[in-house]
Amino acid sequence: MNSYDIVIIGGGPAGLAAAVSAKKNGIDSILILERDRELGGILNQCIHNGFGLHTFKEELTGPEYAKRFIDQVTELGIEYKLNTMVMDISTEKVVTAMNRTDGLFHIAAKAVILAMGCRERSRGALNIPGYRPAGIYSAGTAQRLVNIEGFMPGRKVVILGSGDIGLIMARRMTLEGAKVKVVAELMPYSGGLKRNIVQCLDDFGIPLKLSHTVVDIRGKERLTGITLAQVDEHNKPIPGTEEDYECDTLLLSCGLIPENEISRAIGVDINPVTSGPSVNESLETNIPGIFACGNVLHVHDLVDYVSEEAASAGKNAAKFVKGGMSAASAGKEIPIQATDGVRYTVPKTIHIANMDDEITVRFRVGGVYKNCYISAYLNDERIIHRKRPIMAPGEMEEVKLGKSVLEAATDLNEITIKIEEEA
């Protein structure tokens, strides 16, 4: 059995950034396991620009952004295996994987970083009625077909869901000559970034219908049309609001689900809101030495934040391997409570002793808020009260907590992050 200090599951933006960070923090024995035929993950099919503004201070396409990190991995001599599927991880951090070259093999690791990314919610999870004709794709599948495989999924398109991939594919399909008739969204607000609504829909005259969903699919061999209906506050279709659209393609952009089957199998605690692991200030799960970062932890809006978070996971995994971090000596574990409009926080708990000088707590809100405040409380004392003109579920928010401020708080039992109205 081969052994490595750190094994990273996933060679996408999170896995690459974590590997580079671990190497720069003094760990030489690192292995990345990637199931695809190349490194870079989902970025390889994201040929639009808008990546890297925070990380590299310039605008890059997805493949260009990935290449920056792939080049660093190559220059630093970090090992990786492609076309390799991880089957299992034991609580002793023995990774079982397989590929065509090595067959089934085991790797002993001192630390494991989970960076498997996420998958799209499928039609089966959406309970859309009707037959199962050809022409129904998840938006990410259509993106791969167009941008990598060179196939055009269809010519008359309806998109259900206004997540970022769906919005971007509305523009992409239009540029390739298709007619995108409408983007429908079940919720009363969009699930994507505001800039994508403007650049991908408004600029191309594509209508966005909020509080609408698909209630019927027509066609047996190939999709011939769909029926949209408006929904009420309980997301139930309202009779009499049906509209028929003739189309040969339906793209589904109805949310992303972190890939945590392996995590669950080894007993990692999963946050029911994010469907990703519950982690502490070091991005460590409840199993010592197993860390998580990127979209497997919680779905991000910008890849720059994925890289930043993954760099932190890589640094903390390196610290763990060197024996510089242990829960036993870290003191009291302080929970972070998400309440009053805040759906969750990452991390969920903090050991102040293990913190860097400052920690970024990321979260999403549960609705659209205008002219409200993000507030943070240490017990009952408010330490942050920051006004935001608008907050929406499609965009991640953050607060930064200083170690010295937390250390100075007497008898700290909990940290609370909440949204407050204007007083």
Would you kindly provide a written description of the structure presented here, covering whatever features stand out?
- It is a single chain.
- The protein is α/β, with parallel strands linked by helices and 423 residues long.
- It folds into 3 domains: 1-120 and 256-325, FAD/NAD(P)-binding domain (3-Layer(bba) Sandwich); 122-254, FAD/NAD(P)-binding domain (3-Layer(bba) Sandwich), CATH 3.50.50.60; 330-423, no CATH class.
- The chain contains 9 helices and 24 strands.
- The chain has helices at residues 13-24, 62-75, 123-126, 139-149, 164-175, 194-201, 261-265, 303-321, 403-408; strands at residues 2-9, 30-33, 79-81, 85-89, 94-99, 103-114, 118-120, 136-138, 156-160, 179-185, 208-210, 212-218, 225-230, 243-246, 249-252, 256-258, 290-292, 333-339, 349-351, 358-363, 369-378, 381-391, 397-402, 415-420.
- Helix 5 (164-175) runs parallel beside helix 6.
- The CATH class of the largest domain is Alpha Beta
Number of helices: 9
Distance between the termini: 62 Å
Radius of gyration (CA) equals 22 Å
Average pLDDT = 94
Secondary-structure class: alpha/beta
What does this entry show, briefly?
By secondary structure, the chain is α/β, with parallel strands linked by helices.
Itemize the secondary structure elements and their pairings.
Layout lengths: L1 E8 L3 H12 L5 E4 L28 H14 L3 E3 L3 E5 L4 E6 L3 E12 L3 E3 L2 H4 L9 E3 H11 L6 E5 L3 H12 L3 E7 L8 H8 L6 E3 L1 E7 L6 E6 L12 E4 L2 E4 L3 E3 L2 H5 L24 E3 L10 H19 L11 E7 L9 E3 L6 E6 L5 E10 L2 E11 L5 E6 H6 L6 E6 L3
Parallel strand pairs: 1-2, 1-6, 2-3, 6-17, 8-15, 9-10, 9-15, 10-11, 18-24
Antiparallel strand pairs: 4-5, 5-6, 7-16, 12-13, 13-14, 18-19, 20-23, 21-22, 21-24
